[in-house]
Amino acid sequence: MIEVRITADLKGKAKTIAERKQRENKGLKNYNPEIYKLDMNNRWYTGILGELVFEQLLIDNSKQYKYESLHAGKADEGDFTIELKDYGKFKLDVKTCSQPGYVMMLTPKKAKRYPLYVGVRMNGEVAEIHGVARQEDLYDVTKPKPRIPCIGMRLDELHDIAKLLGVML
After folding, report:
1. What SS3 class is residue 89?
2. What is the per-residue DSSP string for 45-96?
3. Peptide bond before residue 115 is cis, with ω within 30 degrees of 0
4. Helix, strand, or coil here: 119?
5. Distance CA 98, CA 112 (A)
6. pLDDT tens digits, the chain, 169 residues: what are they?
7. Distance between CA atoms of residues 57 and 2, nearest Å
8. CB-hemisphere CA count at 13 Å for 12?
9. What's 159's DSSP letter?
10. CB contact at 8 A, 97 and 122
11. What angle do CA 59, 61, 16 make, to 5 degrees?
12. Please, which residues have CB within 8 angstroms of residue 165's CB and are 6 or more apart in sequence?
């Protein structure tokens, strides 16, 4: 796991992007406020903040990438395109856990699939980048409340994020 400090700049940028996406009405499909702990603004904010934290890690490690989500402006488009030595380009989706006690990286079963997923967990003023999983590593998970069919992986089961950085261009 790698910790990244959440700066005021990252928070401000995430807030601006989340507000823009809300104004453009590019929300999550089938969002039901009765079953989610965070309202729609906070869900966008938390997810975007996780993406920006991962982007900061890439910048800090001089890695090449294209931040797709920021430009596409809609859910289910994949967040980043990265290039791995000897393997080519891959889409990567950042999954952000909003609470320090959350232990699972989840994505709905019916959501679009990506070759790679990065698990980030918010923990106060620090974001914990727990690791990476391949699509085929994810397994069926059903959240107790609400019962949403998901696939996911425990954060402590993810592959070392430093290994991913080591094979990135």
Report:
1. strand
2. HHHHHHHHHHHHHHHHTT--EEEHHHHH-SSSS-SEEEEETTTEEEEEEEEE
3. no
4. strand
5. 21
6. 999 999 999 999 998 888 877 777 555 555 444 444 456 567 788 989 999 999 999 999 999 999 876 655 555 567 899 999 988 999 999 999 988 999 999 988 888 889 999 999 999 999 999 999 999 999 998 766 657 788 999 999 999 999 999 999 8
7. 9
8. 3
9. B
10. yes
11. 20
12. 57, 61, 63
Contact 128, 105 (CB under 8 A): no
* This prediction's pTM: 0.86
**Structure-block tokens of residue 122:** 């918010």
The residue ranges of every structural domain in the chain are: 2-167
Distance in angstroms (rounded) separating the CA atoms of residues 91 and 76: 11
Look-up of token digits 């994020």: 161
Neighbours of 142 (CB within 10 A): 12
Q: Provide the residue count of the chain.
A: 169
- By CB atoms closer than 10 A (0-12, 13-18, 19+), residue 146 is exposed
